[in-house]
Specification:
Keywords: Kinase, Transferase, Two-component regulatory system. GO terms for molecular function: phosphorelay sensor kinase activity; protein dimerization activity. The chain is α+β, with helices and mostly antiparallel strands. It has 14 helices and 16 strands. β1 and β2 form a beta hairpin. α2 runs parallel beside α6, α11 packs parallel to α13 and α13 runs antiparallel to α14. It is elongated, with a radius of gyration of 36 Å.
Amino acid sequence: MPAAPVSPGDAPEPEAGRGDDADSRGLTARVPQLLKAMRSVGSGLELHSTLVRICETAAELANARYAAIGVVAEDGDGLADFVHHGVDAETARLIGRLPDGHKGLLGALIHDPAPVRLAELTEDPRSCGFPEHHPPMRSFLGVPLCVQGKTFGNLYLAEKRGGGLFDDYDLDMVRVLAIEAGIAIGNARLYEAAKQRERWIDGSVAVTTALLSGGDPEDALQVVAEQARRLSGSTAGIVLLPADEGGLEIVAVAADQRPKALGAVIPPESELASELLDGRAVFLADAAGDPRTITHLFRDYGPVMMLPLRSDGRVHGALVTPRARGGRPFTETERTLAAQFASQAALALMMAEAQRDRERLAVYEDRDRIARDLHDLVIQRLYATGMMLESAQRRSGVPEVRRGVGKAVDELDVTIQEIRTAIFALQQGPAEVPSGLRAQVLREIKTAAIPLGFTPSYRFLGPVDTAVGELTRNNLIAALREALSNAFRHAGASRIDVVVDATVTLPDGRPGVRLTVTDDGVGIPDIGRRSGLTNLERRAGSLGGDSWFGPGTGENGAGTTVTWQAPY
């Protein structure tokens, strides 16, 4: 029953000559109906269906055409929910927005929760008028609903069937029903709170499992975003990690539409980024109108929860769950559960990072061992073999043999130099990230050459350093890293070609950059996980680009060609 303006009216006077005995007989005659109504009200545990059932039962008990329950917001300002009965779906659609309880009789009953009985709604001084398409209503009965000593909301009845007025019997019966309704609502709220906590716990388990499974870190962070979005009932779930240049970078987005913010950075001068990096949660009532949202990223949203991923005194990132403009604000319970979820995710993130550090340390130790073996065993044996060949060359009297042995010795010298270069690369620590796209691509290729056992070929076309913007560059490097990793882990390739072309024109006419990584490996199986390719598509889509794959350069088209492109 959408909000209606109401004006003063007088409650009907008790009927003349009606004594206590008559009252008792009239009330007793309706007791079976009341008991039936009370059983109906207490027959379920789901909150919304309980509220609907209370409306239907109260309307039947008081013979009212319309009934509604306005649920008071946690801060006592307006209504958080409004459940109605008697108004058909088409009429409700025409009326539009449900009442918010900030004005009119409904707003007055929030601040003064006492029974109200009116003979004529339109004559009440608290009236503010019916909205267009609202059905006419005259008689009115309002009763507060109390749960565990606190006002939960108000039960409204309007338009007594037959054109009469709500009498004392109706008020008494609805009061008794309101008491039972308060108990039923209390039980439903406890049940929903328990189910809600159970869902958040299950979500935390899913996140912990994903982060500690040793799989792709981007997949795990995507699970965090998806779970946070689902559990909080938000429009999107967003995970941010500290950016190299300061601030917070968006690394995972879960939303119905293609994410456009993936890879974007909230700058360090942002007040929101500073608060999150300091470990403080931020709650925005309306992100679109909040002056702290200095970027465009959150200006299309309404209520937003921004929670630091903090564990052991360290902030690992942030979790953001926005709702659409005009959406329902986050309750205190939702904020508490989301904060606990973020803490659990941060702990899992820290443990996953420690696990990756251990694995990385094992890799470094293995690299040191390989470097020592190459230096102490392989190079020494090659050097000894070269000495033996040189001795044989001097003793040989056949010119063709001398030339062939000399060529073999030269090849050994080149091989020794290449091994020494590999040893040097194995002993190097992580280098500073270069600033230009060309330098970053070369660094990724050099890093991939060590596990691959060979250096991929590369080619650059166009102004790759000057034309490609930072956001596109960051996503392209991540796509290159993913493609090279797939070629190493799954393709078994012996040749990889990398092309970065900044001269392409995208299908929509915009200039863009295209990354092509081609190998001669085994190709992509028809079935199995393709999370890496999904990540590439997600990154390209977030920029308005695209990604796809096709046959490679091996025999009969064996291998894979991965193409990734996006506007500058």
